[in-house]
Amino acid sequence: MRKISVLLLSCLLMLLAGCLGQEEPLSNEYIVLPFNFDGEGNYTGFTTVTLNYTIEQAIENGFYVRSGAGELGGNKAWQNFIENSSNNINSSIRIMHNFDDTVYFLDLFYVDGSFRVFHSLSDDLTDHKFDYILELDGRVPNSQVDSYFVVLTDDSGLSFDNVVRAMISSNLNEIASISQFRILFGGARN
After folding, report:
1. How far apart are CA 119 and CA 134, in angstroms?
2. Which one of 10, 68, 124, 173 is most buried, counting C-beta atoms within 10 A?
3. Cα dihedral 106→14→84→73 (10° resolution)
4. pTM (2 decimals)?
5. d(Cα 115, Cα 129) in Å, to the nearest integer?
């Protein structure tokens, strides 16, 4: 029943995109998440989410799956999302994180030129828009390996060092001087 609902919703969204003159998504094999909100402006996409997904089920359902700082699967779905958003095509992806035996989801959207992300464990499910998705590379102080962060921001010039300073600084003025961003995930470079 769920697969039929997802298929019907996918077809409806593709038809609607066609009516709006947008290009067809690059691939039909990935899930299309409903971009819906309740009367108070809160995202409703997690109301029926189960935390019982296995990694294999999540990948099969088109999720991008990560554990700790590493990728477990679904890279094709991630690349499809990045390519669609780069081509200004509305797109969505569910990212499943399994971190220290806690499973949570990020629903990431590219809608009408803006990125939006919602965290399944967050109390704040209101809509916040970001202009850019950036992959930032660098080295955290006192680390032996290079790292990266994938972030949403309105500042195309945001740097890896800015993100690290915002995370470790105790100086509130310094933190306030750095453009707002949201970390989607990160890890060590191999």
Report:
1. 18
2. 10
3. 50
4. 0.80
5. 6
